[in-house]
Amino acid sequence: MSKNITFVDENDNIIGSGTKKQAWENGNIHRIARLFVFNSKGELLIHKRSDKLKNLPGRWDQSASGHVDEGEDYLAAAERELEEEMGIKGVELEEVGKFYQDEVDDDGKIKKRFNMLYKARHDGEVNFSKGEVSEIKWVNINDLRRQMKEKPKDFTQGFIDSVELHLFK
């Protein structure tokens, strides 16, 4: 059974919950927690989404991200996703900012989301989830920006928006 995610209004006030499928099919605004993990060299950890995923398979994405489950706040979701996707726990997360986004997926469905972005520093081991992630790498921010401009379809739109709004503002 699918976990319910938090539904919000246009001001990010909680108004209910439901499944991801309901949110996507009915246009419910929902919450996403996104994370940028940097190492001591200033490189950003990014991951390639598994080809087995229904939504945006094979695209590069930020360090970790995921829906805010019913009963969770953004921070709890960020901590959970970082541990689930990258095996990283116990790091301090710093809030970077929040933005609203209409993201169009490969099927043409519009996903309405409030995104809360966090950053963390980590130089230790990364044990990524092989079910959700096919590859990880540490990248120089300027190289990443160039790659995003040259081949935007290699990246998720949420990642591009997060980078443009909060790393290069």
UniProtKB/TrEMBL annotation:
SUPFAM superfamilies xref list: Nudix (SSF55811)
InterPro entries: NUDIX_hydrolase-like_dom_sf, NUDIX_hydrolase_CS, NUDIX_hydrolase_dom
GO molecular function, one term: hydrolase activity
Region forming the signal peptide: none
Alphabetized Pfam families for the sequence: NUDIX
Keywords: Hydrolase
Domain Nudix hydrolase, first and last residues per copy: 28-161
UniProt cross-references to Gene3D superfamilies, sorted A to Z: Nucleoside Triphosphate Pyrophosphohydrolase
Protein's name according to its UniProt entry: Nudix hydrolase domain-containing protein
